[in-house]
Structures are given as structure tokens and as C-alpha cells.
């Protein structure tokens, strides 16, 4: 069901609710297929204004119509532009919508993604996100990456301080290894991990297993990698065969595989196109059998 105040989806696409639900931090229940808002900012480098700002806003509104009630973004996307577009398109926000954002990366130029985990920067970054999103509290605020120049304990401690001030509801981390997650958990309650994970790239399998064991949500970024040089030809063939069997696209099968891979998984496929969004959300209704999953192991 779509959040209150948003009309139900149409056009035959399966609603995000078909993926089931997942609970973040014990008190935020969302449909288990979200939307990643990185690609709403301009170009392949995620820099500057979108080529079509009106379409970007339509994508966000259509996502809610299709039952998506978890949107992930970051101040680094644009920078600042993805957060601003979310506010322009969706504020005042419907009840039940969870907006997650991230801080800890700065963008001095289009090609640059530079870690900055200094506590002062994180406090400023959180304040900026609150302003752009027009929120009094961010439901899920994530440390975007580890800054090797700053003790991890200091970075997580800054987020814990913001949580105590009521500016953050829950703390998540991103691009973390297993040992780093354990260190963060000694400083604050961590409710989610957002790492690169997809059919072709499974290096974070140990982190996913820890999340499933400990009740954390695992948010795979770049959830689609069909055709990647890292994907063996045999694996691509298996995806294509299943896509044909289900009358679906390989992208939809890749998303369905993530949903079946672990109940801790909250995929966030992103796009700047309404048509692609509808195709992605339709993957929530695809059910892969045990035999089919074995073919993709």
C-alpha cells in the first residue's frame, strides 16, 4: 500500500510492497524495495543539475505512487542537489516515508570523492542535510565512508552526539568492512550498513551475514551489475536464461536475486527515468525458486 496521501500505483507494475517489509532500528518499517537517489544529480559523475529536473521530480513522485517508502541519498550527490530535489518533489512528506542520507564525503570537483570524517564536518554536514530536506530529525543518517585520517571512534562519536541532540533518529554506516563495523558498534548503536553488493560483486558477503545475524539492515548500493567485466559469461548467461523464463529483464532478475539472497537486504536501485523506475519496482513481484537461486549461486 502506498503511504498515506499518495495514490496507488498503476500501469501494471508490481508495487514495492510485493517485496515484503523490513524494520530499521526496531521502529521504522518500510517496504523492502527502496529507491537510491544518487542518479538524480547530473551526469555520470553525479555532479551538477540533472539534465531534466522535471523528470527527476516525476521519478520521486512516481516512486511513492508505486509504494516505495524508503529513499536513500547523500549530501555528496550533486553535491547537495539530490537532497534538494527530494524536498522540492515530496515536501511536505507523506506519513511513513523514510528518507536516509549520508555525510562524510566532500566533492571539491566533479571527479573527486574525498573522505572527511572530522566531527566538525559531520556536524555541519548533518545541519546542511536537515536544512535542504526541511526536516527536524533525519530518520537514518549514515557515515558515508571511513576517513583514514580521523579515528573512526571520533566520527561515530560525532553522530552519537547528534543523535543525543535529537537531530538523528538512527545511525548507519556505509562502505565498511567487518572489523570497522565492530569498532563502530562499540561506540553507538548501528542499525544499518550500506555497501556495494550485487550479483557480480559479493565482497561484502561477510558483512551481510553479520547484519542478518545481529538484526541490522543491509542496503546494497550499485545493486545491478549485469554485463560488468567482473561477471563471468556463465553467470550472465544464467541471468539471461531466468529473465527469459520469467518474461523479465536481466535487471529485474538481478534485483529479485538480491531480495531472495537475505531477509536483511533492502535494495535501492536508482534511476533518473520513470520508465526504468517502474521496471525496477516490478521486480518486487518476481519469485525465484530454490533451483533457480542455485543456478545463480
Describe the structure.
The longest helix has 15 residues, at 119-133. The chain is an alpha/beta fold. The protein has one domain: TIM Barrel. The model is unreliable at 1-13 (pLDDT under 50). It has helices spanning 53-65, 81-90, 119-133, 152-164, 178-185, 205-214, 233-245, 250-261, 274-282, 290-295; strands at 21-24, 28-31, 35-36, 70-72, 98-103, 105-106, 114-115, 138-143, 168-174, 190-196, 217-221. It is globular, with a radius of gyration of 18 Å. It has a seven-stranded parallel β-sheet with strand order 3-4-5-8-9-10-11, with helices on one face. Strands 1-2 form a two-stranded antiparallel sheet. It is 37% helix and 16% strand. Helix 1 packs across helix 2 (81-90), helix 1 runs parallel beside helix 9 (274-282) and helix 3 crosses helix 4.
Task: Give the arrangement of secondary structure elements.
Layout: E1 21-24, E2 28-31, E3 35-36, H1 53-65, E4 70-72, H2 81-90, E5 98-103, E6 105-106, E7 114-115, H3 119-133, E8 138-143, H4 152-164, E9 168-174, H5 178-185, E10 190-196, H6 205-214, E11 217-221, H7 233-245, H8 250-261, H9 274-282, H10 290-295
Parallel strand pairs: 3-4, 4-5, 5-8, 8-9, 9-10, 10-11
Antiparallel strand pairs: 1-2, 6-7
Helix pairs in contact: 1-2, 1-9, 3-4, 7-8
